[in-house]
Here is the input.
Amino acid sequence: MTAMKEQRFWAIIDGTLKHKADPEVQLAVLRTALEALSLEEVESFELRFGELMERSYTWDLWAACYIIHGGSSDDSFDYFRHWLISRGHEVFETAVDTPDALADMELSTIEDVCEFEDFSYVASQVWHRRKASTRTIPTLRSHSAEPPAAIPRASHSMRTRVICRSACRNCGSATAKTRWGDARRPRLP
Here is the structure.
């Protein structure tokens, strides 16, 4: 089994983007799109998802997640990468290539959390419903024993920009304090 071509994968994801403000609707649209595929295509979609998860497993992206959320466990980082994929090709590629660019993006989501755990389950749910099997869907997603790729670099510039941007948009102030009073944990509007 080979992974779905990236262009096709992103066409499916990008087809859900007009509903990104409502996670439940976005999940339903993705589910409908995957239900129209053959079982083999659902498997290849899942494999591509796994490849993108592996590609986005970097220290710099983990640092960005840590800064955005004010901390990040390994599960939280997974959910953050699911969210990045759910935001579409352009956001994902920009974030993977230049994590600091996230400071300049509009990141607002429900409850200001850039995570989307459920997004990663849809292909598996569709596959199991159609396959009616206890066997697991083929996937590349596994927790690697290896740490993320690349050595972390200083992210101070991103931290400063995220805090300042958040502060300026929340209260109009140029200070590094958000309306919640915690400059260490910016909440993106």
